[in-house]
Amino acid sequence: MTQHVSPPLVLIPETAPFSEDQRAWLSGYFAALLGPAVEGATALAPGAAPSTGPKLADNDDAPWHDPSVPIGDRMEMAKDRPEPQKLMAAMAQQDCGQCGYNCADYANAIFLKNEARLNLCQPGGKETLRMLKKLEEDFGASSGGAPAAPKAEGDAPRTAADLGPLGYCRENPVEALFLSRRRLNDPGGEKETWHIEIGLDGTPITYEAGDSLGLFPANAPALVDAVIAELGARPERMVGDKTLRDHLLKDYALGAAPDNLYQLLSLLTSGAARKKAQALASGEDPDGDAAYLDVLGALHKFPGARPDAEVFLEALDELQPRLYSISSSPKMDVGRVSLTVDAVRYNHRSRLRLGVASTHLGERLPEQTRVKVYLQKAHGFGLPADLSKDVIMCGPGTGIAPFRAFLRERAATKAPGRNWLFYGHQRQASDFFYKDELNTLKDDKVLTRLSLAWSRDGNEKTYVQDRMRENGADLWKWLEGGAHFYVCGDAKRMAKDVERAIIDVAAQFGGKSPEDAVAYLAALKKAGRYQADVY
């Protein structure tokens, strides 16, 4: 017996940046996909009451929107949801903006076929890319392929002006002047952290405390030369309008070897080597070394496979920009922006591995040279408009970056609200970033409280969340008095530990049950009083 139901509406969030043609297309797509049950479905007009019909991805209805949840669990949560929400669940859930979207908007853009690139989620990496490819295959198999979404502004090719405001998106960067770098670590530290200054004069970029700067790096020349030598190619070989070496320096990623490269190598090998390359291309790890195989490592692993240089480039991913939290205030640091950057370097199997952007900024980029940048505006991460509100900031290591910006902004605006910073690192003697500056802010009554945690000083490791619990009574009073809480740093561990500390403080000093303490944190988030800048 066929059950007849009333045609539901297709929910489109009021803020979704889609044209009327795209809204109509979306409605027709769902009608075609779901059959007679939704015949006559229409797009929900902005401001209309919600319905039970399929909808686009939205943070407000995404229980998987938590970067600490493994992708398998996220996909399980979304298994009965519409296609856009399944796509969102595949993202890394950090809303970092590195892809040029937040997670929900990226998913919706892929679903509406406004975005063809599936490899933009940098935190998700291969894991997200493989899941997005699988979902697209599943969607095509179940629906016969989704129709292409209509373009909002006709079919004319996109020009530079169509890419977005100059200097405000990754597709339309500007050139800024790299001014200087200085080492933040004192002798004895295990990390290498740099304070970077970039001049914005002559660019259209204006920013606010809480924003991030996107930067286009270049690969290390020594790595590029090693890849070319391993290929047996000539560095001056022209591929299109550039030499092979120029392409590898600036256009292509030489980090984690992409699946397409393994697929290419499998075509150039045979027997056991071919099966191994095919397994790596499918996400398997036959030798337990997949996590460490970069492009050069992949070439070393399959020494008999040497593709033509042009075909090789086609198998690589594009070199993506990197985002860094801005650590300066536009009111105090006029015409320039500063970043706080950990230089990533480590040895694996006798090879030195380098973070692309971090070592580009920390050692390779000459001062007074131009670098391509763009501004990534913050969404849901910024100081309260009411300057009298108290502010609590928790940022260990380079997580201090936006809070240096916040404190400088609060000093420049003479904000009457109190400011409390939780900062930590490995050792106080070597890793107390901006020590003199913070002490000056304390003396000037801008920084009301400074709570420090050092994980390698003493017999027991102490972290910022430990200091939060130790100061729980005062922390609770600040929160109950309307303070805004901010955290910046590692998404999967530190940020979750900080959230647990707030829950514990609410339970111990607020007398809340475990369930009510969790609800208290959720209420802070909903009210915009708990904000995170995580990576």
Walk me through what this model shows:
By secondary structure, the protein is α/β, with parallel strands linked by helices. It has 19 helices and 15 strands. The chain has helices at residues 20-34, 71-77, 83-90, 103-111, 125-143, 221-231, 244-250, 259-267, 271-281, 295-301, 309-314, 356-364, 401-413, 428-431, 435-443, 464-470, 472-480, 494-510, 514-526; strands at 174-183, 193-199, 212-215, 238-239, 242-243, 322-325, 336-342, 345-348, 351-354, 369-376, 391-394, 419-425, 449-454, 484-489, 530-534. The strands form four sheets. It has a six-stranded antiparallel beta sheet with strand order 6-3-10-1-2-7, with helices on one face. Strand 11, helix 13 (401-413) and strand 12 form a beta-alpha-beta unit. Helix 3 crosses helix 4, helix 6 (221-231) packs parallel to helix 10 (295-301) and helix 17 (472-480) crosses helix 18 (494-510). The chain starts with 19 loop residues before the first helix and ends with a strand.
